[in-house]
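User: Show me a protein chain along with its predicted structure.
Assistant: Here is one chain, sequence first, then structure tokens.
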Amino acid sequence: MRLRCAVLDDFQQVATEIADWSSVADQVETVSFSEHFASEDELVAALAEFDIVVTLRERVPFPASLLTRLPRLKLLVASGMRNSVIDYAAAEARGVTVCGTASSSTPPVELTWALLLGLARGIVTESNALRSGGPWQQTVGADLHGRRLGLLGLGKIGSRVARVGLAFGMHVSAWSQNLTKEHADEVGVELAPSKEELLASSDFVSVHLALSDRTRGLLGPAELALLKPTAYLVNTSRAAIVDQDALLAALREGRIAGAGVDVFDVEPLPADHPLRTAPRLLATPHLGYVSRANYETYYGQALEDIRAFLKGAPVRRLG
């Protein structure tokens, strides 16, 4: 009898085409789900008869309450090597092996710049007007050269974003709670003396921090009030780092020039969510990691994880 494998959140319906699942077809029946299961009850109903689950990033939480209700589950594969929404202790207690995959930082760097450039030059507004027969030239673009890019976080992604900013001729500064001058010097950027100074002095602010107790709500009403009215905020990291209500208020009241957002408190974003109609917002549906190369890695290595598990020698274990 073959095991059953569920691939979750295959929104583009490419998971079973982008990798060669036939390599495990004699032992595993694979079913791809393109719809998102938002509640635990929906997940239990969909996954009760599956032995293996492949989950995309941190889209679906796997707390102890869910794992307890999936008695057949033996292998959980998550894309990436870090996942904050899986209860590893509960998985171990239930005999569930958890494995990960590699993940490239290149796609989120590129999307950050797509959002930043789209905001600066009014790309969506101008494109929509041109295609609909609207007015010819509505916006006056914001320059990058000579302007200040402030980065919250200068890790793997933030450092690469910084180098692109420098190539555009921007003045780049960075801040995080653990950032040292030595590392800032290595990247070639200025170390901002404080978060407040970075926010107040920057023309563009981009968030590149991991979500933790220290960064949750890092940008609240008081911090957003420090931004210039001509400044733009970009967040491709985690939604909870920026107070969503405060951001919405700043956009509606015109207290900042605009925001580029790829991450949300609830994903997929409900159809009636106020951010869907917020002014001055360029939003994308969490595309930061979504690229062909990344998907080839995710699903190709998910297959490697499954094959190794079937041989009794799991690889890339998480927990």
